[in-house]
Amino acid sequence: MSTGKIFALLTAAVLLFSCTALAEQEAPKVQTGIYTIKNKTGENVTEVKITDNVTGETNEFPFTENDVLDGEGSLVLYFDIPEGENGEHRLTLSYKTESGREETFGTLSIEEVAIDLLAADAMTGSTPIAFSMPAPEKAGTYTFYNKTGEVVRFINLIDNEDGAAVRMAFNDGFAPDETYTMSYGVSPERENVTLTLQFVTESGKIGTFSTLKIEEAPITLLDVDSVSGATPLSFTAPY
Prior knowledge:
16 strands, 1 helix, 2 domains
């Protein structure tokens, strides 16, 4: 092999290594706060917002116009910050009710926690929320893989019997090829209930699957326009 060919191969190898290292550097690690929020106010909640006290970045509900968090409804909000900055970041949780009440809690940490939004007469002092312990339940756990080719804005799990919904939203979107895990709990005697899964992408495409069981399962979300048949997902992991 000539000296020129050897030099060309070595140059290509160096460039490939440099590009790979740069790509790895450009994927910052994050810490994720997961907040399961339940409406205990006694009325509809029209807005829930989590705001980073440092950057001003937000993740908020409602996801669509005229959407409300009704009595006993719940939602899940995710919030990412750069890894290692947990001690420097606090979040503000705020909410508004249909009657016009506006409440804030300004020292939320980056953690996984269940939060009840309280009625005015249930507050302890000026604190409008309570950190709650979940009741014993049968839980379905779903690991979502985004293979839609675009950002997913939110995911809903809706109980087909009583209409209760858990909504999952992301402050910076659920990007293509990322993975998120979500749980849905029911009382043990209702373990045979089915759920409707709904996801909405950044371009407005809507995927729906109406017979999801309470189980542990991988779910790959697919491009709605490219699937054959009516099922916009697969119950297998993509890798």
